[in-house]
Amino acid sequence: MRIIPVTFLLLYDFCPRRLFLEQVLGSPPEPRPKLLLGRVRHFAHTKLHSWESQVLPGVTLPVNPYRITDLYKRHNHKVLQNAIIAHKSQLTAHNFSLIETYKTLWPGVIYESQDRANKVIAYLSRQEKLSSDWFDDFSPKLSHELMLSSVTLRLSGVVDRVSAKRDERTLIELKTGKMPEEGAWRSHRLQLAAYALLYRTIRGERPRAAVRYLDARHDRDVDVSDQTDAWVLTVKTDVEQLLASTELPRFVDNRKKCMVCPHKLVCYDEEQVRALHKERFA
Ligand code: SF4
């Protein structure tokens, strides 16, 4: 049986017709250059601090807060540069200046660098002596882009970041764009619920979950429980049924979603949809 990516659950939850158009009829989403900056930012932030385990063990006492902060800024500057270079051809194709992209994204990197440096400085300030393996005891440790895949669940996905503090693990998704007044957006809750279920199935322990809203510079905890497990499994079953179906789902009830949908041009073009359907199932 096919392993379903968590992103399919999110597409289905947004609009079943969208998932059908994209994954069953093979209609590609319209390119959305406006989202490119967000993608570069997300790419960079999933890799920030990934150099820590190579660099931090070389730090010695007495702690120099400026030096630690500078270390974070220098290394994360390189991470951002590399993220921009990795997207160079897409950015230039859509007339984004590489320097302006850097200037736009740098303040967020500085914020994350300072936030993380403060944690290291606080830890080091509490130490009287520092062994060569001090970094092994430091927490929270961060790991990035953790792949989770379960044949039992027939589900897979990649978590942006995992924070480990003693026995506690927190799955963190990094999100650009507006933060809701309270809690997290529905799609972000569903995504983290799916990752938490995967994590528990694979590792046998239920993690905590949170969204880091990069623009708002704020973390929001997300509840994961037996109830959210059931929600994920229901959506996953619906997705499997849709992927095995030949029937185009109806338009979404909330038509405001269509305004931001990357399939709107095809979706409302009956002739094109009929042709795609015929091509796929004839
Ligand atoms: S345009 Fe509207 S109805 Fe069509 S796939 Fe997108 S969200 Fe669904």
Please provide a written account of the structure.
It is a single chain. The chain folds into two domains: 4-30 and 142-243, Lambda Exonuclease, Chain A (Alpha-Beta Complex), CATH 3.90.320; 33-137, no CATH class. It is 53% helix and 15% strand. Strands 1, 2, 3, 4, 5 and 6 form a six-stranded mixed β-sheet that branches. The two termini are 24 Å apart. It has helices at 6-14, 16-24, 36-45, 52-55, 65-86, 88-93, 98-125, 134-137, 186-203, 226-243, 256-260, 264-267, 270-281; strands at 4-5, 141-150, 155-165, 168-175, 208-213, 218-222. The chain has 282 residues and is of the alpha/beta class. α9 (186-203) links the parallel β4 (168-175) and β5. Iron/sulfur cluster binds next to α2, α11 and α12.
Number of β-strand runs:
6
Shape: globular
What name does CATH use for the topology of the largest domain?
Lambda Exonuclease, Chain A
Counted up, domains total: 2
- Count of separate DSSP helical elements: 13
Summarize the helix and strand pattern as letters.
Answer: EHHHHHHHHEEEHEEHHHH
Attribute tags:
single chain; 282 residues; alpha/beta; Lambda Exonuclease, Chain A; 2 domains; 6-stranded mixed β-sheet; 13 helices; binds iron/sulfur cluster
